[in-house]
Amino acid sequence: MEFIIVSLVQNIDMKIVIIGAVAAGAKAAAKSKRLLPDAEVVIYTKEENISYSACGLPYYIEGNFEDADKLIVRTISDFESKGIKVFNKHEVTAIHPDKKEITVSNLVSGEKFVTSYDKLLIATGAVPYIPDIKNREIKGIYTLKTIDDGINIRNRMLSSKRAVILGGGYIGLELLEAFMQNGLSITLLERNHSIMNSFDEDMASLISAYILKNYGDKINIITSAEVVEFLGEESITGVKLANSHTINTEMTVICSGVTPVVNLARDAGIELGQSGAIKVNSRMLTNIPDIYAAGDCVEKINMISDTPMWIPLGSTANKEGRCAALNMCGTVDDFEGILGSAVTRFMDMTMSRTGLSSKVAESLGYDVVSAIVTKRDKAGYMPAVGYVILKILADRRSHKILGAQSIGSGDADKRINTLSTGLIRGMTVEELNDADMTYAPPYSTSIDPLIDAARILKDKLSCCTN
Amino acid sequence: MEFIIVSLVQNIDMKIVIIGAVAAGAKAAAKSKRLLPDAEVVIYTKEENISYSACGLPYYIEGNFEDADKLIVRTISDFESKGIKVFNKHEVTAIHPDKKEITVSNLVSGEKFVTSYDKLLIATGAVPYIPDIKNREIKGIYTLKTIDDGINIRNRMLSSKRAVILGGGYIGLELLEAFMQNGLSITLLERNHSIMNSFDEDMASLISAYILKNYGDKINIITSAEVVEFLGEESITGVKLANSHTINTEMTVICSGVTPVVNLARDAGIELGQSGAIKVNSRMLTNIPDIYAAGDCVEKINMISDTPMWIPLGSTANKEGRCAALNMCGTVDDFEGILGSAVTRFMDMTMSRTGLSSKVAESLGYDVVSAIVTKRDKAGYMPAVGYVILKILADRRSHKILGAQSIGSGDADKRINTLSTGLIRGMTVEELNDADMTYAPPYSTSIDPLIDAARILKDKLSCCTN
Predict the structure, then answer these.
(1) Exposure winner among B115, B320, B350, B384, fewest CB in 10 A?
(2) CB contact (8 A) between residue A56 and residue B441
(3) Tell me, what's the pLDDT at B1?
(4) How far, in Å, CA of B258 to CA of B263, rounded?
(5) Could you tell me the pTM of the whole model?
(6) Residues A18, A320 contacting (CB under 8 angstroms)
(7) A212: CB partners within 8 A, 6+ apart
(8) Residue A167 touches partner B, C-beta closer than 8 Å
(9) Mutation for B interface: A417, A450, A455, most B CBs within 10 A
(10) Closest listed residue to residue A373, CA positions, set A316, A422, A415, A332
């Protein structure tokens, strides 16, 4: 619950400084200025753009829309018109907590200066993880983070016939669709046993099977692939694997995950969590007074296991940015944590998940029981019936639901979201069995796949307690 | 939790008799036979068909599929092949609890007989409510309950140019779409102030406005309409209102709601609830030992208010039938209640709701606070963006969410279902604000409308507690 403690902080001299402004930073700046119109709110960012939808980049590359500027949620002028000062192409190089100051470097002029803060928010985000591969510097090798990255990849794609994608996670699969829809032949290289590692292996292999069955003429997927060298003189011509196998290509995108940007925080004595991301309390405060952190650079609490976890997602960054702003401005607000709910698509297949995967749950000591249901997504006599494959995991001891994954041409995402609000309150299998979902023939089957899965789990759990 | 107490009931002489077999009865019969393969399971039904999807009838009438038999989930032969005895066109005319017998009348031969039961399930369902209107007996006036009704309405529709629908609830709107898609001009007459009465008036008027704005050339909606007479000699030619206004028509369907079939139960001394439907406990047991009831003839407990309510829905009937079967067969199972979650569509507009409406909540003594959010259903730069209008109601004292309604061309149904699992655990506004939903540009906005609504409610509630 929020309580406005106005007297403490409504100080016209208040200066809120925010480092980084993609999602968490941009949200925090706008919210802070709304809460305390007289405060000085200043943003520093290394990047050119602020407040953009990085999640939309693959769809821009695919050609779902033409103007990359559509990804900009709010421009620098939008912020400035609200009285927020924005310094783009400015890098904060040091934080001095004892003096409540930061050192800033103007990346264009090279000028350096020191400035003060009353409240500081670190929203430095995450950067693509770059595996140690030979010849990384040649042309035609990309990562995807900024709008410029998106424009560069799209331009290269439009003149290419072949591409290699390194990494079969969300962004990897989104680019796979984008490249395929633009006529390229693609090889997807995944260093792990299976793609889509946030899904259980059985679900991930169904995803692979779907892609290869329907688009195997254009797409090749190689798992357990270790890339050792990029080939080519000036520009990339191929990728070499550890087994000496070589794949010819005109471009490569490295989508091998991301890593939190924490060096600035760590150098200032800010504590990191066991995941390596910045540790904050539920009010987004670090171990140092008046220094907050939010977004992809921050460790989160998983609401199911109540353990720290680093799952960087735009939707979370947004909420954390808001929570940080409320607390910096003197309101008490708590961010309770995350489930790791996420969704993407490949062509007509939706892939959606929430909570813990089997592997993570087992590593945390849960005794995992699971049920998989394959079902139509609406009444069988209706036109355009899709299918949903749903897997739900529960804990044998507490009967609590631990997580779920759903894929299919039907509304797989609805099932995951339906479960998610129950999960934040520790829903059991028996409670899910009593869930009251909507039913009409164009929208679902009279018994939803979630209920079917709950019944299977209920039977599995009751037979073992007798 | 279920515990199989096998010793008590696995009696080969056990005879389970079920009256009615559309949803609850059919489910109970199949489940009972699976649980106790040696038991005698007998179904009596007045109707010709059993186990059919009544909810699919409007889509059959519309022409979404051609063969009405597709609505039959399981045929009588399917049941008989599992060893379940089915007596269709047989009416149970009396229950004799003291002797554990029933009197049955064969509607074809006229023969009457008495038979015994060990466990009896009343699943007599509901029938259309017929308002007291003059000339009800002339031809061309329909109600929609059975597959034959559906076939008759479709045939009449195919040779008609004009239709009048009495009642603007779910079935009324589904038939409105069906008739319009088949080229008819339709007048929808609603006796209340607004159509779709399970929605709040503000949401219902948005539904009306959408229909009239887009299809006003084919559809007329008259609210507060009191029909006093059907006009015509042998066949209907018009409908006369209390204000003497007359509407010409070639057919009329009465969709003025339904009423539970309870006469058989009442005559046997079975207690009815305050709603007029049969009162059962959470194990679907009536006040008389060994007599259970399930489905549309039964009163339910609303999980939000914990008060009895009669909301007949196929999805609920299915669950109650299963619960009744488990208990009749000696397993302990509890059905916790309902939220009244429901969905339908009119053309590209989805209408979905769960929990209490404002009117019902206020009548139960809640101090209702609400928030309405209108938002795109996915990132604005994506193709085929729809919209969602979402209204959430909360209780000012407890901050608990009481219900929600959502309409729009976007995925309004996902939002309602997402909320529904939270509602069964008494989710507060603050908890919804922390919900972790999936986000990707093709599926949602980075801040879901549910979160926006939660934030508005949170602000409204916090400003009033200070």
Answers:
(1) B384
(2) yes
(3) 40
(4) 15
(5) 0.93
(6) no
(7) A219, A221
(8) no
(9) A417
(10) A415
Q: Are residues A425 and B431, on separate chains, in Cβ contact within 8 Å?
A: yes
Give me the residue label for tokens 């490949």.
Answer: A346
Residue B9 has pLDDT above 50, yes or no: no
pLDDT tens, residue by residue, B139-168: 999 999 999 999 999 999 999 999 999 999
DSSP conformation class of A246:
E
Domain locations along chain B: 2-127+259-328, 141-256, 350-465
Tell me how far apart the alpha carbons of residues A268 and B155 are, in angstroms, rounded to a whole number.
79
Q: In which residue ranges of chain A is pLDDT below 50?
A: 1-10, 465-466
Of A420, A432, A462, the CB nearest to B437: A420
Whole-angstrom Cα distance, residue A80 to residue A147?
A: 21
Q: Give me the mean pLDDT over the B190-196 stretch.
A: 96
Per-residue model confidence (pLDDT) at position A463: 72
Neighbours of A265 (CB within 10 A): 25
Which residue of chain A comes nearest to B460, CA vs CA? A2
CB B149 within 8 A of CB B61: no
**B438 chain-A contacts, CB cut-off 8 A:** 315, 341-343, 352-354, 413, 416-417, 420
Q: Do B318 and A413 touch (CB under 8 A)?
A: no
Q: How confident is the prediction for chain B on average, in pLDDT?
A: 94
Task: Tell me what ipTM this predicted complex has.
Answer: 0.91
Amino acid symbol at B308: P
As a CATH number, domain B2-127+259-328 is: 3.50.50.60
* B115–chain A nearest CA distance, Å: 33
At A42, list the tokens: 């200043």
Q: Which of A169, A165, A164 is nearest to A313 (CA)?
A: A169
Positive or negative: CA dihedral B433, B434, B435, B438: positive
- Are the folds of A2-127+259-328 and A350-465 the same? yes
* Chain B touched by A343 (CB under 8 Å): yes
Q: Please judge whether B417 and A416 are an interchain contact, meaning their C-beta atoms are less than 8 angstroms apart.
A: no
Residue with tokens 């680093």: A310
Tokens 């309602």 correspond to B416
Residue A243's CB is within 10 A of a number of other CB atoms, namely 11
pLDDT > 90 in chain B, percent: 93
Residue with tokens 């949803």: B23
| The pLDDT of residue A11 | 52
Strand A291-293 to A141-142 pairing: unpaired
A445: closest CA of chain B, how far (Å): 9
**Inter-chain touch B438–A417, beta carbons under 8 Å:** yes
Express each pLDDT in B343-358 by its tens digit. 999 999 999 999 999 9
pLDDT above 90 for B69: yes
Chain A residues in contact with B431 (beta carbon < 8 A): 336, 424-425
The CA distance from B205 to B215, in Å, is 15
The beta-carbon neighbor of B435 closest among A23, A416, A420 is A420
Mark which residues 346-365 of B lie under 8 Å from A by CB. 350, 352-354
Nearest CA in chain A to B419: A421
pLDDT tens for B80-95 read 999 999 999 999 999 9
User: What is the CATH number assigned to the segment(s) A141-256?
Assistant: 3.50.50.60
Contact (Cβ atoms closer than 8 angstroms) between residue B104 and residue B17? no
CATH number of A350-465: 3.50.50.60
What separation in angstroms does the CA of B426 have from each of A111, B423, B462?
56, 5, 19
Of B151, B128, B146, the C-alpha closest to B60 is B151
